[in-house]
Amino acid sequence: MKRLNSILFLLFVFSCEDKEELTPFEGDISLNIYEIKYFSEQVEIEFLDVVEDLRCPQDHICGRAGNGRVLLRLNQKGQSKGINFILNTIADPETILLLNYKIRLKELNPYPQKLNSVRKSDYSMVLNVEQID
Predict the structure, then answer these.
(1) CA dist., res. 103 & res. 95, Å (int)
(2) Deepest in the core among 23, 68, 103, 118, taking most CB within 10 A?
(3) What does pTM read for this prediction?
C-alpha cells in the first residue's frame, strides 16, 4: 500500500508540471521541395511544387525578369483537407493571408543559370511568416 501511494504521488507531481506551450512561429522559414514544416502546434506548411519558373537565367539578357510560381499547402490540425495556394516571386500574389498568418515568398532557389537548368528536386524557398490577429 505504501508503494502504491508513492507511485500515485509521483504521478501527481509529474502531471502537475507546467507544460511548455508552443508559441506560433514568426520569421523566415526555409523549405525544400516536397518538405513539410510546422510553424505552430496546429499549423504546418508543405512545399508541393514549382508550377513554373520563367525567371531570366543569370547568363542571359532578358526584356523582363520573369516569374517563379510555387504551389503550397497549409494544413491545420484536425482538418481533413489542407488549403492549397500559389505564391509568386514577382507577380501577384507574392503574399497571402491564411489562418491568421501572413505568408510571403521571399526567395525561390536556385536561380536559373541557363534555360531549364534547375531540376525539380533542387528547388528550395524562403518564406516569411507573420502571425496576425
Answers:
(1) 5
(2) 68
(3) 0.77
